[in-house]
């Protein structure tokens, strides 16, 4: 008798999972259709008009699929953000997903090649938003009980640093027991992201003195020479063991071959794995001093996203996802990555954050950006089952 009761419990658990998975498998084409329409609404971060049109599509889709209203968080410069609330009560889970992309309108086209679907922002991260939406849809349609309210925040400016949405993300995260980020999974392995580097950016501006390169060479102060010396100083701050990288990504200056250059500038990218390194290296860069006599130097910028350091609670959250994955017959790894996301903000204020729960594919920010179509239902099922467990 005891054995049969236990068996019954196990059986019913498995049945719930199968229901979610098979529901999503049956609706694979609907998910795909929603995603294609979503990707067609191009949404380059800098184009408020287009991003807002895309947001309108998204709000209508939530209404149609989940019968849920939305709260519009209006912005003047960037696109408006959208907040959806599913369920009620106090304890809440926060899902974050950005619907802006790095792609200018018309830059990439939507096309299908076998199991791959290519398009602007399809992997980063419109696919993840659609999967999460369908995960909730499956839970609703199957009448499965959620333990917590879900707040689904869709922001419009992640690809340009989330300057406008950061405060709303932090505000909702403070009220949440966990944050799930539907950013793409690690390419190739499908791994979740439990740690991300912090990111910083800086502009180095240098003024020297112009002079005729032939007649008055000695009177000039060469801004390019100064910048070249500063580039060496900056690049040498890289320390792979500590996870710190400094990359001088652009270098411009001068006005003509026969003129001692008066002005030069560089744009610099910083990645750090710890708060300590963030402070140390940021301090050095902001306090660069001129090397040549007579040079004026100005540094602007700083840390944009703090490092997402894996906490004990994040480890538990990952282990929960991993055990669900194995129940679903999937293998799930975790990884630490160099790129930042809005998960960095929520982890930095101490809320357990699991990132990379979105689509599987390759080529974020690259021309070959695509998702693997056949993974849509299984990743959505993983997401749904995680929501049910939390
Ligand atoms: Zn992204």
How many distinct domains? 2
Largest sheet: 6 strands, mixed
**What percent of residues adopt helix (DSSP H or I)?**
25-40%
Low-confidence stretches: 1-12
Shape descriptor: elongated
Q: Give the count of helical stretches.
A: 10
Total beta-strand segments = 18
Which class of the largest domain in CATH terms?
Alpha Beta
Bound ligand species: zinc ion
- According to CATH, the fold-level topology of the largest domain is Aminopeptidase
What order do the strands of the largest sheet run in, or round the barrel if closed? 1-2-6-3-7-16
SSE succession: HHHEEEEEHEHEEEEHEEEHEHEHEEEH
Averaged pLDDT? 94
Q: What portion of residues belong to β-strands?
A: 15-25%
For the record, the CATH architecture of the largest domain stands as: 3-Layer(aba) Sandwich
Structural class assignment: alpha+beta
Question: What is the terminal separation in angstroms?
Answer: 31 Å
CATH homology-level superfamily of the largest domain:
Zn peptidases
Keyword list:
390 residues; elongated; binds zinc ion; disordered N terminus; six-stranded mixed beta sheet; Alpha-Beta Plaits
What does this structure look like?
It is a single chain. The strands form five sheets. Strands 1-2-6-3-7-16 form a six-stranded mixed sheet, with helices on both faces. A four-stranded antiparallel sheet has the order 4-5-18-17, covered by helices on one side. It has ten helices and 18 strands. Residues about 1-10 have low confidence and may be disordered. A hairpin with a 7-residue loop joins strand 17 (about 360) and strand 18 (about 370). The protein has two domains: about 1-195 and about 310-390, Aminopeptidase (3-Layer(aba) Sandwich), CATH 3.40.630.10; about 200-305, Alpha-Beta Plaits. The chain has helices spanning about 1-25, 30-40, 50-65, 120-140, 165-175, 225-235, 275-285, 310-325, 345-350, 375-390; strands spanning about 70-75, 80-85, 90-100, 110-115, 115-120, 150-155, 175-180, 190-195, 200-205, 210, 245-255, 260, 265-270, 295-305, 335, 355, 360, 370. The two termini are about 30 Å apart. By secondary structure, the protein is an alpha+beta fold. It is elongated, with a radius of gyration of 24 Å.
